[in-house]
Amino acid sequence: MDIRLEKVHFSYDDLTESREVLHDIGFSLKSGECVALVGASGSGKSTLAQHLNGLLKPDRGYIWIDGQRLRWTPPELRLLRKRVGLVFQFPEAQIFEATVFDEVAFASKQWGVDPEEIRETVERTLTDLGLDVGEIKNRNPLRLSGGEARLISIASLLVIDPDWIILDEPTLGLDFAHWLRVKNLILDRKAAAKGVILITHDLNLTLEVCPRTLILINGKFGYDGPTDELLINHDISAEYGLAPPEIIQIWKALNLSLNEETDIADLPGPDLTKLELWIKNQPLPRRQQLSSVLKQYISDLMI
């Protein structure tokens, strides 16, 4: 499923003023792409996401689905929201059923899927996300941990197998185990040629899963291109106010060179003595975060 936006503008209106959030947005998404959408808070990322599955309608401009202009009729919107699923930044905003099973099964029920097929699909989806079906399916979803709630929100979309899923800050506040589950979910979607739009400040995850990155700055695109090129050739802290992935910071701190021929995903292991000294000079929360990243990185090197 291909998606194209053409000259899209959108404003939020209140009692005193109109504030334009998206300005002349145009870009294309090819079926099966994995694309990161990043930018500062308030740059328009979530607003743009809600245009992609029809929750918001542009003030001006057009949205094209597989070459056909979206007409915003109820049947078109119903189908679009089945084909493009959105997981909000705060999962509790879209959780309303009494049990995890009913929450995950809800969309399938709305589409009239056979009950036995629903049961099998729900249980398989929960298992694929690393969750214990027997332990979690009868729990109240509003009493789950933050990481569990995010996974349940994602599962509620996966059961209907959309062409695209939009994940809005899916790793926010997650521990490393849940972070890894989200990463593996995205990789599984890529392997199945299903599209993913990752809205995130987590450039570690972006680096690992998204070949293409879009950067929004005050409702306009500041960058649309390869993730590697962005990280190698741009000072993203100065230009976009974004924190580079830890592995990029490590290489720059160790004065190791990066160029356009560098495959960032295959960087060789650094001098561990220098690396240890560099980590020790970081604030405690930063050291803890780096520890998780490096454990996984070193583990990958040993395979």
Structural overview:
The chain is an alpha/beta fold. It folds into two domains: 3-241, P-loop containing nucleotide triphosphate hydrolases (Rossmann fold, 3-Layer(aba) Sandwich); 245-303, no CATH class. The chain is 43% helix and 21% strand. The protein has a six-stranded mixed sheet with strand order 6-7-8-3-9-10, with helices on both faces. Strand 9 (212-217) and strand 10 (220-226) form a beta hairpin. It starts with a strand and ends with a helix. The mean pLDDT is 85.
Task: Please outline the helices and strands.
Elements: E1 3-13, E2 18-29, E3 34-39, H1 45-52, E4 60-65, E5 68-69, H2 74-83, E6 84-87, H3 100-110, H4 115-128, H5 133-136, H6 146-158, E7 164-168, H7 176-191, E8 195-199, H8 203-209, E9 212-217, E10 220-226, H9 227-233, H10 236-240, H11 246-253, H12 272-280, H13 284-302
Parallel strand pairs: 3-8, 3-9, 6-7, 7-8
Antiparallel strand pairs: 1-2, 1-4, 4-5, 9-10
InterPro entries: AAA+_ATPase (IPR003593), ABC_transporter-like_ATP-bd (IPR003439), ABC_transporter-like_CS (IPR017871), ABC_transpr_CbiO/EcfA_su (IPR015856), ECF_ABC_transporter_ATP-bd (IPR050095), P-loop_NTPase (IPR027417)
Protein name: Energy-coupling factor ABC transporter ATP-binding protein
Organism: candidate division LCP-89 bacterium B3_LCP
Percentage beta strand? 15-25%
Overall radius of gyration: 20 Å
Please tell me the total number of domains: 2
Spatial arrangement of strands, main beta sheet? 6-7-8-3-9-10
If you consult CATH, what is the topology of the largest domain?
Answer: Rossmann fold
Poorly predicted ranges: none
Number of helices: 13
CATH architecture verdict of the largest domain: 3-Layer(aba) Sandwich
Shape, please? globular
What is the CATH first-level class name of the largest domain?
Alpha Beta
In whole angstroms, how far apart are the ends?
36 Å
The helix content, as a percent range, equals 40-55%
State the oligomer: single chain
Number of strands: 10
Main sheet?
Answer: 6 strands, mixed
Pfam family, one: ABC_tran
Subcellular location: Cell membrane
Protein name: Energy-coupling factor ABC transporter ATP-binding protein
Domain ABC transporter: 3-243
